[in-house]
UniProtKB/TrEMBL annotation:
This is RNA helicase. Coiled coil: none annotated. Residues 73-92, 378-397 are annotated as: Disordered. A motif (Q motif) lies at residues 131-159. GO terms for biological process: plasmodesma organization; plasmodesmata-mediated intercellular transport. It holds the Pfam family DEAD. GO terms for molecular function: ATP binding; hydrolase activity; mRNA binding; RNA binding; RNA helicase activity. The lineage of its organism: Eukaryota, Viridiplantae, Streptophyta, Embryophyta, Tracheophyta. Residues 73-83 have a biased composition (Basic and acidic residues). InterPro entries: DEAD/DEAH_box_helicase_dom, DEAD/DEAH_RhlB, DEAD_box_RNA_helicases, Helicase_ATP-bd, Helicase_C-like, P-loop_NTPase, RNA_helicase_DEAD_Q_motif. Residues 421-565 form the Helicase C-terminal domain. GO terms for cellular component: mitochondrion. Residues 131-159 form the DEAD-box RNA helicase Q domain.
Length: 573
């Protein structure tokens, strides 16, 4: 395939999508494919073949990637599914056999009743790569530690990401929820820094001191989850090498720990990292890795000042290009930048291009250079802004973000009957670990109260709770003390509760990206999971619209006589 390459320099100040993703920096260089029909990487079905075995240890270049000659175009609108069969073709194994009546057609999958004991949801082996951790070049000490933790095979996205990150590329990792993106970036980092790294580099790297990796996450809960993951791999003797810098926790204690423990990795929320950095207590100029987990959220308007500081300070090369000419964030730095999310809008691709060295997009079974992806121009001013194209970008971001193992349904209920419908839904599906989402904080308590009154153990989680209460609630829910967690958007991103077998939307998510992240709290790592949206009759069209945007079947249903009854599509369209 021939690429026509042009350079476009552009001042980018404006938001690039309806979700207010902003692009920092004032000079963006990107190349465009000559084919105008290419809508973008999510929709266009890029099929970069699995190229990892083609890299024979040398530095990864576009030529070595062989992507230009090996990329194929799929049909417009069809997406490439990775790491598992299509939803329609899979065999399912969830709790209930759907009831079929005259106006009802059976669900495609065969649902089955559970044993009356606490379920252990089976992990789908198709999600795992054929390669082993050793074959991906991880150091023996690290592989041993992974084995000790019961991690014996990499997932597809880990298999794709580990060698590319090890070759020092700036990357964007996009893979569906629960596919193992956290280890996809942690493992190559821990191969390079800390006590488990490659032995041949040990002597040289021993001399390094200070923070070598900064990982940023949008919520305290996700930050702490990442910290636990790093601690697990480092083991009890070295867990002090990772320091949490999340908001809500005691700042002076965090600062003391930085001084005393001399961590090599910090994980935190944007506000707290930037606060401690501004106070001169966090020195990250020599940092080699910057990870933005849930990057599309981190680059939203809400975080712009803190993220600006982080991008400006972390791993900054002393004496970089003058900010007068290029602006502070267009300056190339020595750090390796790793951007991660299940949903990657065009604004993130643009940002990654402007910050990175030959950045590549890694998906579970493909690796493509970002320069080869056509993205629409960002709106430069209010008058240029085309709301439909920016919302299109957000919707495009959601395609391919959902695990194939999920089943999606929706039913209608009046507002005052939603909790009762939720109760019937939980019983019909015999769900044991349920996350119910609402859009606001206030009504959460009321839903908990009503569920408890109906004999279902429930609890609420939201940002207004104190730090301690938040972690206690989450721990108790993970330990199975509560059957239902009623929560808001706070829990939609990154939260990993492997046992979660049902997600319910009690309020409609604001768009398909929000739907994807909420839905992704179930069906983790290829496990089976069900997502049910309970909406009012007048909102049914919104669900059907999201279904189209996400390219997944969200089937109309109801819960009667303790059964899930799936309706024929024609009856409701
Ligand atoms: N190779 C592996 N073997 C077994 N379990 C794994 C492996 N990799 C990751 N996991 C587990 O899979 C679960 C999901 O991983 P993770 O939270 O990294 O997913 P994710 O892709 O980041 O999801 P999200 O997009 O929702 O943040 C976690 O419980 C994690 O410990």
């Amino acid at each position: 395939m021939r690429l026509s390459i042009g350079q476009v320099h552009r001042n980018v100040l404006a938001l690039a999508s309806s979700r207010s993703c902003f692009v920092l920096g004032d000079r963006v260089s990107f190349r465009m494919l000559s084919q105008p029909r290419v809508a973008g990487f999510h929709q266009t079905a890029w099929r970069g073949s699995q190229i990892l075995e083609d890299n024979r240890g040398g530095p990864l270049t576009l030529a070595s990637l062989e992507v230009q000659s090996r990329v194929e175009y799929g049909k417009k609108g069809k997406m490439e599914r990775t790491g598992g069969p299509k939803p329609s073709s899979r065999a399912s194994s969830l709790y209930v056999k759907p009831k079929v009546s005259s106006n009802v057609k059976p669900a495609k999958s065969a649902l089955m009743k559970p044993a009356g004991i606490k379920k252990t949801l089976k992990v789908d082996e198709a999600l795992f790569s054929a390669k082993s951790f050793e074959e991906l070049g991880l150091p023996p000490l690290l592989v041993d530690q992974l084995n000790k933790e019961g991690l014996t095979a990499p997932t597809e996205v880990q298999s794709a990401a580990i060698p590319i990150i090890a070759q020092k590329h700036d990357v964007v990792i996009q893979s569906y929820t629960g596919s193992g993106k956290t280890l996809a970036y942690l493992l190559p980092i821990l191969s390079d820094i800390g006590p488990l790294k490659r032995t041949m580099e040990q002597d040289h790297s021993e001399k390094r001191s200070g923070i070598e990796a900064v990982i940023v996450a949008p919520s305290r809960e996700l930050g702490m989850q990442i910290v636990r993951e790093v601690e697990k791999i480092l083991g009890p003797n070295d867990k002090r090498l990772v320091q949490q810098l999340v908001g809500g926790a005691n700042r002076s204690r965090q600062e003391e720990a930085l001084k005393k423990n001399k961590p090599i990795i910090v994980v935190g929320t944007p506000g707290r990292i930037s606060e401690i950095s501004a106070a001169g207590k966090l020195h990250t100029h020599g940092c080699r890795f910057l990870v933005l987990d849930e990057v599309d959220q981190l680059l939203s308007f809400n975080y712009r000042e803190d993220m600006h500081r982080i991008l400006e300070h972390v791993g900054r090369r002393p004496g970089g290009t003058s900010r007068d000419i290029l602006g502070p964030l267009a300056r190339r730095s020595e750090r390796q930048t790793i951007l991660v999310s299940a949903t990657i809008p065009f604004s993130v691709i643009r940002a990654a291009r402007s910050w990175g060295h030959d950045p590549v997009l890694i998906r579970a079974k493909s690796v493509v250079p970002l320069d080869s992806i056509t993205v629409p121009r960002p709106a430069l001013s209010q008058s240029d802004a085309n709301p439909s194209s920016s919302s299109q970008s957000v919707n495009q971001a959601a395609v391919g973000s959902l695990p194939p193992s999920l089943e999606h349904y929706y039913c209608t209920a009046k507002a005052q009957h939603k909790v009762d419908t939720l109760r019937r839904c939980i019983h019909a599906l015999e769900a044991q670990t349920v996350i119910a989402f609402m859009n606001n904080t206030k009504p959460l308590k009321d839903v908990v109260f009503k569920l408890e009154a109906r004999g279902i153990k429930a609890t609420e989680l939201h940002g207004d709770l104190g730090k301690l209460a938040r972690s206690t609630v989450l721990k108790k829910f993970k330990d199975g003390e509560f059957r239902v967690l009623v929560t808001n958007e706070l829990s939609a991103r990154g939260l990993d509760v492997p046992e979660c077998d049902l997600v319910v939307n009690l309020d409609l998510p604001t768009d398909s990206t929000h739907y994807a992240h909420r839905a992704g709290r179930t069906g983790r790592l290829g496990r089976k999971g069900i997502v049910v949206t309970i909406c009012e009759e007048s909102e049914g069209f919104v669900v059907r619209k999201m279904r189209k945007q996400l390219d997944v079947a969200i089937k109309p249903c109801e819960f009667t006589e303790g059964e899930l009854v799936v309706h024929k599509e024609e009856d409701v369209e």
